[in-house]
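Quick check before the chapter quiz. The format below is the same one you will see on the exam, so make sure you can read both the input and the output lines.
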Amino acid sequence: MPDSKIKRRGRRRLKSFSYTGTWAHSITLYTHQRQHLFKSRQIVHPVLHILQDTAERFGFRIWAYCFMPDHLHILVQGSAPRSHQPGFMHRFKQMSGYAHKRQHGRKLWQESYYEHILRTEETIAAVARYIFENPVRKGLVETPAEWPFSGFLEGIDPKVI
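Here is the expected output.
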């Protein structure tokens, strides 16, 4: 189908929600054209460093992350009332995409991302476990601890799940 005929999806964020504060968010970002880019430390580590830096600057904790070949799962939580998730995600995608294109000559991310705001009955540990088990569900490894491109920055260790 020619690009001019592609229907653009509407806004994926909730109109009535501010996305500011200490909410926890499960977020999935896909690589451009679902390319299998996250297969080596040389690709994953620079993106992870930018994620860490951006989270720090925007006041977010990273409870869990998992780089799959064609997408990234992250579980983040605002650490201050001013933590603004869309600003954080925009900056992260911008900086990591720019660095990747400069280094490898190609686009990194698909437009937008999918996010889920955790409800009060959903625990950080349960959502982190789900994220860490993704490579197991896809048949890439037998245990979460075997996957080299997942981890935690705020106290949930995939090796003990």
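If your answer matched, good. The longest strand covers residues 60-68.
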